[in-house]
Specification:
Oligomer: single chain
Largest sheet: 5 strands, mixed
Strand content: 15-25%
Structural class: alpha/beta
Radius of gyration: 21 Å
Order of helices and strands: HEHEHEEEHHEHEHEHEEH
Helix content: 40-55%
Shape: globular
Number of strands: 10
Strand order of the largest sheet: 2-1-3-10-4
Length: about 260
């Protein structure tokens, strides 16, 4: 079933009225009771796992009476939930599809290849040190085509399709004997020295924490991969309470720390 054009206009008007009512109530509550309530945030589970330790303890300390509800998903889903007033904020990647969503840029992100020292030496032998120096400036996927990668089999993920297209456009067939949607679990497998992994730049801090002196992990930027923009999005009509603004500031700071180690 789908709405008629008139029905679509009525629905948009009603959701905007609902948001304005929520804004008014939020402003009144803030004046009368201070910082209370709930913030609903859309965030992919892997990014939540990376950002949460830096964001939410600090937020809870300053806003003990404001709860945060995390809803998993992807950017296009979050956009619709924000416009239907089912989300307050979301962490998105690339760009938004609706002019009514305001965005705050928080990072410019490249895709990296994460691989252990032992796996580099297994496949590149005596030339491993030379390749490590070379790949620090940008890894050539063609020179890594025989290395086993962990694929991401999460349903509907855009990144997996982009990686496949990137490889195919260069005549490369990736060797992916293992696929898993859990990025942090995949990093554990990479640390074991048996697989390499494609990982967004925001996971840099997590990678460095899992690296060891005996078998360090390398983070090589993927050559010629376009920069993607990471942002916080919300309805442009939304009233930003003090607690929401604090949460946004903490996410911005955490994203910088995570992306730069």
């Amino acid at each position: 079933l789908s709405l008629t054009p008139a029905g679509e206009r009525l629905y948009r008007s009603l959701t905007r009225i609902e948001l304005l009512e929520r804004n008014l109530q939020a402003e009144l509550d803030e004046l009368q009771r201070g910082d209370y309530g709930e913030i609903r945030v859309g965030m992919h589970s892997a990014r939540y796992a990376v950002l949460a330790p830096l964001v939410f303890p600090a937020f809870q300390e300053k806003m003990p009476h404001v709860s945060v509800s995390i809803i998993g998903g992807r950017t296009r889903t979050f956009e619709k939930l924000v416009l239907s007033n089912e989300l307050d904020l979301f962490l998105g990647v690339r760009s938004v599809s609706y002019s009514s969503i305001h965005t705050i840029p928080i990072a410019e992100e490249r895709l990296s290849i994460v691989i252990s020292d032992s796996l580099m030496r297994q496949y590149f032998g005596a030339e491993a040190d030379a390749y490590i120096r070379k790949f620090n400036d940008g890894a050539d996927l063609g020179e890594m085509r025989y290395i086993p990668f962990i694929g991401n089999n999460e349903y509907g993920t855009v990144l997996s399709g982009e990686i496949k297209q990137y490889a195919l456009s260069r005549g490369i067939s990736l060797y992916t004997p293992l696929s898993c949607a859990d990025v942090l679990a995949n990093l554990t497998m990479v640390a074991s020295g048996r697989f390499a992994l494609f990982a967004p730049q925001m996971y840099t801090r997590q990678v460095l924490q899992m690296s060891s002196r005996e078998n360090p992990l390398y983070i090589f930027p993927l050559a010629d991969w376009p920069v993607h923009h990471v942002f916080i999005g919300y309805n442009s009509d939304l009233y930003l309470s003090k607690s929401m603004q604090l949460l946004i500031d903490l996410i911005v700071d955490a994203a910088y720390i995570c992306s730069n180690g």
